[in-house]
C-alpha cells in the first residue's frame, strides 16, 4: 500500500484543518437557579441561540451570573462576591442544554472558612424539571463533572504539545480550558493588556497558548491514538529490521558456516572424507543426511574378569617371591655346606699326609699322635679324637647331602620359572582388559563428539532462513516504513503550525472585516490574533500595532469582541468542542465619561443620552453588531450580556431583555430573601 493511498484513507476521516467529521455539539445555558436555605428558588431562564440581556443598577448581582456558571462548570473556587448573595444563597445551579440533552449541575455555597467546594449534584436527561432543595444531595465532584462535560461536548483524549527540550509538563485540554473563550468580565472586556478570561493569572497565559491549537482544530482529534499507533508501528519496524538483519547475516555466512560444518562432519566420520560439495545446495543436502546418525552400541565383555585377574596376578607374584626367597636361602645353605666340606676335607688330607693322627688305637691311654701308652687317660685327647671322628663323619654327611640340595634347588627354580610365566600371562590378560576398556571409552568419546556435531548441524539447518528480494519480510518492512512515514507526516509539528497559521489567517480576515464594521482605529489595515502574545495586532504597512498601543477604550472593547466572536464562529463552523455561549459583563462602560455617568444611565431616556454623549451611536452600533453575529450563527450561538445601559429605543435590545431592569427591588437575589431571617 503506497503512502498516497494510506494518506487518502486516513484523511477521508478529516475535514478542513484536520478535525474529524462529527456531529455538531451545541452547549448553551437554559437557566440559572439559586436556592436559599429555606428551599425557595430563584430561576432566570435564558433564550437559546439568541442574545440575552440583563440590565439594571450596580450591585444587583448581574456580574455574579458569570461566576455562577464558571463555578458550576467544575470550578474549584467560587468567584461570587461577598455580600448578600453569599449570605442568602445556599446552592447555585445551572441547567445546560447540550443538543437534545439537558444537564443540571448544582453546587452548594462554600463554607464560611473556605472559598472552594468540590462536591457536586448533577442529573442528565432529555428534559429536566428543576429539583427542590431537598433533592439536592452531592453525587459527584468537580473532576467527574469536568470529565463528563468534556466527553459530552466531544473533547477527545488529547495532550498538549511541548517543544523538544521544553520544561513544561504535558496535560490534557478539558472543558476547563474552554472557559477562556466563554467569559468576559467587567475588568476584562475592554482591557488593553489582557484579551482572555483569567489571562492575568499565573500560568494561565501558557495554558491558553498550549490548548488553543487543539480547540481551533489545528491538531488532529486522534493525535494520541496516532502517536500510540506510530509507536507500535516503529516497534514492529525495528523488530522486522532486526529479524532481517539476523537473517541476512546468516544468509551471507551460510556457505562458510555450512562448509565448516561439512568438514567437521567428515572428520568425525559422518560424511565420506572424499565427498566434495559443488554448491550450497550440496552442502545442505549432505548436512541434512547426518541427522539420521545413531550412536554406536558399546559392548564390554571383559569388565567382570578384570578384578579377578588382578587378584590372581597378585597371588602368583606373592608365590613367585616366596619361591625365590627359598631358592636364595637354599643356595646360601648349600654354599655354606660346600665351604665347610672343602675346608674339613682339606685338613683331613693334610693330617693323613703326615700320618700324625692315628686312628687304629682309639684307647684313651694311648697318645693320638705317637700311639705310645699312657699311664693315665687324657680327656682332651679323647675329645680331640672324638672331634676328629665327628669331623670325618660330618664331611661324609655333607658330601652325601649335596646332590639332594642341588636337586631341590633345581626344582624350586623350575617352579619359579613356571610362576614367572603365569605372571606374564596374567599381565597380558590384564593389559587386554585395560585395552578393551580404553577402546570402549574411545567409542563413547567418538559418540559424544559426533553427537555434538550433529546437534550443531541440526540447529544450523533449523535456524537458517533463505531470503531473496521478494521475501515476505522485505514486503512487511516496506509496508511498515510507509505506515511510519504517513504517521510521522500527520504528527509533524510543522504541519500543525501550518494548519494553525492557516486557521489564524482566516480568523484574522473575519476580524478585519468586523473591525471595519465597528470603525475601529487602524481598520484600514489587517487585524489578526497573535497567540504567542495573546493580543490583537493591526498590521499597518509601516509597523504592527498591538492592542495596548491602540488609543481609547472603544478600540480595546472592539478588539475583544471581534476576537471572541471570530473564534466562536470558527468553533461553530468547524464543530469544535467549545460551549456555544459568550458572557459579556458591562461592555458599554467605556463609552461614558465617568463611572458615575455610567451608573446613572438607568432611567435616563435614550434620546437624552445620545444628545449628552455622541458615543452612544457607537454603543448602538456595537449592540447591533452583536445581534447580527448571533443571528448569523443562530441557533448555535448564545450571547449573554449584563449591562447598566438600557437602549430603550432599540427594539432588538428590548426584545433581548430577559427580565425587567433590575432596579428598585429587582435583583438576582429576591428582596424577600434579604428581609427574611
Characterization of the model:
- The protein contains 18 helices and 13 strands.
- It is elongated, with a radius of gyration of 62 Å.
- It has a six-stranded antiparallel beta sheet with strand order 2-1-4-5-6-7, with helices on one face. The protein has a four-stranded parallel beta sheet with strand order 3-13-12-8, with helices on both faces.
- It has helices spanning 3-11, 62-72, 84-88, 142-152, 175-178, 204-216, 223-267, 280-289, 306-354, 379-463, 472-491, 493-517, 553-573, 595-599, 606-612, 616-633, 651-656, 671-675, and strands at 27-35, 41-45, 51-55, 91-98, 101-108, 119-125, 140-141, 183-184, 527-530, 535-539, 544-546, 581-585, 638-643.
- Strand 10 and strand 11 form a beta hairpin.
- With 677 residues, the chain is of the alpha+beta class.
Amino acid at each position: 500500500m503506497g503512502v498516497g493511498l494510506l494518506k487518502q484513507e486516513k484523511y477521508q476521516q478529516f475535514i478542513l484543518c484536520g478535525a474529524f467529521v462529527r456531529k455538531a455539539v451545541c452547549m448553551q445555558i437554559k437557566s440559572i437557579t439559586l436556592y436559599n436555605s429555606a428551599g425557595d428558588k430563584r430561576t432566570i431562564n435564558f433564550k437559546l441561540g439568541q442574545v440575552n440581556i440583563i440590565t439594571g443598577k450596580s450591585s444587583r448581582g448581574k456580574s455574579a451570573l458569570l461566576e455562577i456558571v464558571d463555578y458550576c462548570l467544575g470550578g474549584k473556587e467560587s468567584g461570587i462576591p461577598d455580600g448578600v448573595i453569599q449570605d442568602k444563597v445556599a446552592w447555585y445551579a445551572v441547567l445546560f442544554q447540550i443538543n437534545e440533552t439537558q444537564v443540571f449541575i448544582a453546587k452548594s455555597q462554600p463554607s464560611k472558612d473556605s472559598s472552594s467546594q468540590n462536591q457536586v449534584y448533577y442529573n442528565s436527561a432529555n428534559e429536566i424539571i428543576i429539583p427542590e432543595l431537598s433533592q439536592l444531595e452531592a453525587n459527584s465532584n468537580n473532576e467527574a463533572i469536568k470529565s463528563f462535560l468534556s466527553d459530552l461536548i466531544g473533547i477527545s483524549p488529547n495532550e498538549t504539545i511541548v517543544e523538544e527540550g521544553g520544561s513544561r509538563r504535558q496535560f490534557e485540554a478539558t472543558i476547563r480550558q474552554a472557559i477562556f473563550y466563554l467569559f468576559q468580565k467587567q475588568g476584562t472586556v475592554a482591557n488593553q493588556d489582557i484579551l482572555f478570561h483569567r489571562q492575568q493569572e499565573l500560568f494561565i497565559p501558557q495554558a491558553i497558548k498550549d490548548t488553543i491549537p487543539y480547540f481551533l482544530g489545528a491538531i488532529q482529534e486522534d493525535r494520541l491514538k496516532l502517536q500510540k499507533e506510530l509507536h507500535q508501528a516503529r516497534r514492529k519496524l525495528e523488530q522486522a529490521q532486526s529479524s532481517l538483519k539476523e537473517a541476512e547475516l546468516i544468509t551471507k555466512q551460510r556457505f562458510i558456516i555450512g562448509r565448516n560444518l561439512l568438514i567437521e562432519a567428515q572428520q568425525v566420520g559422518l560424511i565420506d572424507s572424499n565427498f566434495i560439495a559443488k554448491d550450497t545446495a550440496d552442502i545442505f543436502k549432505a548436512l541434512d543426511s547426518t541427522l539420521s546418525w545413531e550412536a554406536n552400541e558399546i559392548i564390554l565383555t571383559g569388565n567382570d574378569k578384570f578384578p579377578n585377574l588382578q587378584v590372581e596376578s597378585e597371588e602368583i607374584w606373592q608365590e613367585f617371591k616366596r619361591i625365590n626367597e627359598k631358592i636364595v636361602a637354599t643356595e646360601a645353605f648349600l654354599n655354606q655346606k660346600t665351604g665347610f666340606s672343602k675346608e674339613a676335607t682339606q685338613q683331613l688330607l693334610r693330617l693323613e699326609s703326615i700320618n700324625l693322627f692315628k686312628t687304629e688305637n682309639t684307647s684313651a691311654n694311648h697318645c693320638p699322635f705317637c700311639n705310645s701308652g699312657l699311664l693315665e687317660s687324657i680327656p682332651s685327647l679323647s675329645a680331640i679324637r672324638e672331634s676328629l671322628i665327628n669331623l670325618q663323619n660330618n664331611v661324609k654327611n655333607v658330601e652325601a647331602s649335596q646332590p639332594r640340595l642341588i636337586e631341590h634347588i633345581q626344582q624350586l627354580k623350575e617352579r619359579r620359572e613356571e610362576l614367572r610365566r603365569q605372571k606374564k600371562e596374567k599381565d597380558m590378560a590384564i593389559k587386554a582388559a585395560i585395552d578393551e576398556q580404553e577402546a570402549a571409552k574411545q567409542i563413547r568419546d567418538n559418540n559424544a563428539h559426533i553427537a555434538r556435531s550433529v546437534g550443531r548441524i541440526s540447529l544450523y539447518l533449523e535456524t537458517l532462513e533463505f531470503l531473496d528480494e521478494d521475501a515476505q519480510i522485505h514486503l512487511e518492512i516496506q509496508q511498515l516504513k510507509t505506515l511510519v512515514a504517513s504517521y510521522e507526516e500527520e504528527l509533524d509539528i510543522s504541519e500543525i503550525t501550518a494548519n494553525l497559521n492557516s486557521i489564524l489567517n482566516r480568523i484574522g480576515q473575519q476580524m478585519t472585516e468586523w473591525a471595519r464594521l465597528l470603525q475601529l482605529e487602524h481598520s484600514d489595515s489587517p487585524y489578526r490574533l497573535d497567540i504567542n502574545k495573546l493580543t490583537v495586532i493591526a498590521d499597518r504597512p509601516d509597523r504592527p500595532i498591538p492592542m495596548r498601543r491602540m488609543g481609547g477604550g472603544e478600540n480595546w472593547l472592539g478588539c475583544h469582541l471581534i476576537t471572541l466572536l471570530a473564534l466562536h464562529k470558527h468553533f461553530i463552523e468547524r464543530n469544535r468542542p467549545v460551549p456555544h455561549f459568550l458572557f459579556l459583563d458591562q461592555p458599554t462602560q467605556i463609552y461614558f465619561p465617568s463611572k458615575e455617568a455610567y451608573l446613572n444611565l438607568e432611567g435616563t431616556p435614550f434620546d437624552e443620552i445620545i444628545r449628552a454623549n455622541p458615543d452612544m451611536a457607537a454603543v448602538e452600533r456595537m449592540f447591533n453588531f452583536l445581534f447580527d453575529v448571533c443571528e448569523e450563527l443562530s441557533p448555535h450561538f448564545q450571547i449573554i450580556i449584563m449591562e447598566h445601559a438600557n437602549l430603550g429605543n432599540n427594539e432588538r435590545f428590548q426584545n433581548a431583555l430577559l427580565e425587567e431592569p433590575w432596579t428598585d427591588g429587582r435583583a438576582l437575589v429576591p428582596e424577600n430573601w434579604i428581609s427574611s431571617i
